[in-house]
Amino acid sequence: MTISDNASIEDLAVPKGSASDGASPRPHWMTRQRLYLYSGALLLVYILTPGVKILRDSWGHPFSFGNNARDYIAFWSASHLALHGHAAHAYSTKVLGALEKTVLPDLKGTLPWLYPPTFLLFVYPAALLPFEPSAWLFFGLTLVAFVVAINAIVPGRISTLLALAFPGVALSALTGQNGLLTAAMMGLGLALLPRRPVWAGVSLGLLCIKPHLAVLIPLALICSRSWRTLVVTGSIAFVLSAISTGLFGVETLAAFLRSMGEIQSVVTSDNKSLLRIPTFFALARQMSIPAAGAYALQAVSACVAVASVVYVWSRPAAHELRAATLVCATLAFSPYLYDYDLTWYGLVIAWYARFGLAHGFRRYEREGLILLGFAPLMGLVVVPHVHFQFLPILTLLTLAVLVTRVRTERHGVKGGNSVAFAKGIPR
């Protein structure tokens, strides 16, 4: 049994009963009215904050979204070079930096282009527009995609409001980054998987634009024997790679492969960036542990992530818990992760809320979802002050909660008390 397609997150305050231990039948303090109130208040803060900044710092000057969402300059500049037939130069720090400074003269240093040619294919038309409107359009389109993905998981009007108020959206606006885009691809792919396996493969295959976020997808599909989705996912990745290589040239692919060393240098040498890298590698380096020890700690986290996916996806489990586990495990796997990638926490929240609506929440689980919702902003507003990168610990704790819930539900099935397990995914 799974949640009805017509079910809404508006029912969050009074979940259906569950046979799982600890599920509370009493109404929760998080009522529908409070969901509207709190999410509306967050949206108001998002709207008023730029206004206050303009009044304080830029009186008489137009507000520039692009000047604040500066990471997007790397996307726009890479597109500009590709449109002018110099795609391989996007991986040249010298060339890219010079172009970035023509648009943002006060930019300190260079924001490198560290993505594969498949991502360059996605942002190829970005520089057809000037930088400012291009930045607005990129944020707007990726925000719409994210909201659609959340509504595909948990339908309902308030889902749209909660998605817009999600702090990960604010972080994407502040950084001009791609977290909303990748979250939308993952979210839609997993939402389509039970009933539209081919289209699910299309969406999941698009994540080849950031391969380190797609590593565990084939493992999950193999464990669940979702062969059609696996074939389509691989085919989409192959086709996009072939198109990007044909369009931009083999030299662009070679330039990307050479830039991998630069990526490693950013992760291992830039101590300032560690505050925004929510991985156990960054946590270890922040504590002055040598790189070898940091990689070892990250390897342990990756092994836990792999084991979790195998455990949850290889045997019967509710699709909601499978999806949330895969998303969370992905965040625990890669050593190269930035705080804007924690927009994926929104998917974990949506999938677990969907499960809770159908089968009930345990005590403090809803409070945990609220904490997880604010986590994407903690890398900017909390970690720098406490000087401790605690976000990977939060990710692993969340993963433990998910695996434990799956284990409990499986034991309930053996005892004939649980209805939390969905029908098999089409193969």
TrEMBL record:
Belongs to the glycosyltransferase 87 family. InterPro entries: GT87. One of its GO terms (molecular function) is hexosyltransferase activity. Its main location: membrane. The chain crosses the membrane at residues 35-52, 112-129, 135-154, 161-192, 198-223, 230-250, 295-314, 344-361, 368-384. It comes from the Bacteria. This is DUF2029 domain-containing protein. One of its GO terms (cellular component) is plasma membrane. The keyword Cell membrane applies. Keywords: Cell membrane, Membrane, Transferase, Transmembrane, Transmembrane helix. It is a multi-pass membrane protein. It is found in: Cell membrane.
